[in-house]
Amino acid sequence: MRVVFAGTPEVAVPALDAIAASRHELVGVVTRPDAPSGRGRRLVASPVAQRAEEIGVPVLKPEHPRDPEFQAALAQLRPDACPVVAYGALLPQSALDLVPHGWINLHFSVLPSWRGAAPVQHALWAGDEVTGATTFRIVKELDAGPVFGVMTERIRPDDTAGDLLARLADGGAGLLVQTLDGIADGTLEAREQPEDGVSFAPKIAVDDARIDWARPAAAIDRQVRACTPAPGAWSTFGGERIKVGPVRATDGATLAPGVLEVTKNAVLVGTSTTAVELGEVKAFGKKQMPAADWARGVRLQSGVRFGD
């Protein structure tokens, strides 16, 4: 089966590699245009574009998939199916109609739970014990198309969004290839999603990632892990934003919400339940470092409060 892969970030690269190594003929890749990066704001190709160029696959970088020039170029490649992983642009019906077997998306949740841009982050934040990945045919409604296949993955107590997404990307790559195999063989039929159990996972903005220390320690732990590595959970100290890495529970220590206790090797912060121990922190303009090193550097004293 002739396929054109669509994807953009690093998390899509395992699926691209798996498809390139499969029995299917990878005839092209679609990705987002080059974007400014780094201090010099130099234009840099997406991770998927870079990998496609390494393996010698033609790359299309439309400003928008509705562009007539892009759709003409896609039609010339004559794909039977277009597997998709985190492409990052909405596909118009005119593009969907160009592909006989459709655009087959790998989504990092067990649909219909957590439709949207940030399913892994929301699963962690909500305290889910199990998540997974789903392959489905893209339709106009967000992540609502008929499902081909599902895999599940247990969420570990110390998982960050980055950890969990990496495992799902690797496992999901195999699921996506199996889905393409079943479509090509005629042995796999998509089934409509159930109408109940739908939940949504919109993109988490920087403002959403601000820590409210008046919440319980367990909720703060989930929030911080869900926002790691991006956009990064944060609080303020001395009028500056401090990014906070995953925290650790303490054995019953209590402090008022947001109040810090500094010891030689640790920094504790109060919540509405038990205090938590800070892991790594990143002050504005500084490198990420262990919280104890940050405390020594700014001569932090016990009794001060985040947010003051």
Question: What's the helix and strand layout?
Answer:
Layout: E1 2-7, H1 13-20, E2 25-30, E3 35-37, E4 42-44, H2 47-54, E5 59-60, H3 68-77, E6 82-85, H4 93-96, E7 103-107, H5 119-126, E8 130-137, E9 147-154, H6 161-185, H7 217-226, E10 234-237, E11 240-244, E12 248-249, E13 260-262, E14 267-269, E15 276-277, E16 280-283, E17 289-290, H8 291-297
Parallel strand pairs: 1-2, 1-6, 2-5, 6-7
Antiparallel strand pairs: 3-4, 7-8, 8-9, 10-11, 11-16, 12-15, 13-14, 14-15, 16-17
Helix pairs in contact: 1-6, 5-7
Which architecture of the largest domain does the CATH hierarchy give at level 2?
A: 3-Layer(aba) Sandwich
Q: CATH-wise, what's the superfamily of the largest domain?
A: Formyl transferase, N-terminal domain
Number of domains: 2
Q: What's the tally of helices?
A: 8
What does this structure look like?
- The chain has 308 residues and is of the alpha+beta class.
- It folds into 2 domains: 2-185, Formyl transferase, N-terminal domain (Rossmann fold); 207-297, Roll (Methionyl-tRNA Fmet Formyltransferase, Chain A, domain 2), CATH 3.10.25.10.
- It is 26% helix and 23% strand.
- A hairpin with a 6-residue loop joins strand 14 and strand 15.
- The radius of gyration is 22 Å and the shape is elongated.
- The mean pLDDT is 96.
